[in-house]
Amino acid sequence: MPARKTPPEAWVHAAFVALAEGGPDAIRVEALAATMGVTKGGFYREFADRNALIERVLNTWEQAVVDVVITQVEDSADEPRTKLRRLFDLARGYTSETDALSVELAIRDWARRDRGVAQRLSRVDNRRMAYMRTLFRQISADHDDAEARCLLIFSLFVANSFIVADHDGRTRDMVIDAALDKVLA
Prior knowledge:
This protein is mainly alpha-helical. It has a domain at about 60-185: Tetracycline Repressor, domain 2. It contains 9 helices and no strands. The N and C termini lie far apart (about 65 Å).
């Protein structure tokens, strides 16, 4: 009986889960294989080494948080404000299989210690900002205003998870919606 083949997507998914739970050091071939209930030999049929898996993880993440999200937003004929709200909602939940925010934060933390990951994160953030600029410039002809709004909405996305304050009887979602309303006004 031939050995069961574990597709590369399964390894990537397991790596995302490990990254979200334990950071980049948790992406270890033996640990992933054990979690998946397969041998590490299957890994080497799909990837040359751990670095090849890491590259695939980062490529998959970039595609999910930029290309897929923008395609979903652009699939509608909505006006720019509606697209920006949808963009924000999609960015918070770009994958249902892993905790999107945990992956985002793990990559941001990883980028502080790894130059290659920092360069990738810079490219992703610049692509995100460039897309938001195109939408905000349809709302405001003032380029400074558009840039400030881009920074505010992107900061809200990234920094929201670091704030643990209560909101005087309001839920976090209520406050985020109110903040988005203000930035998109």
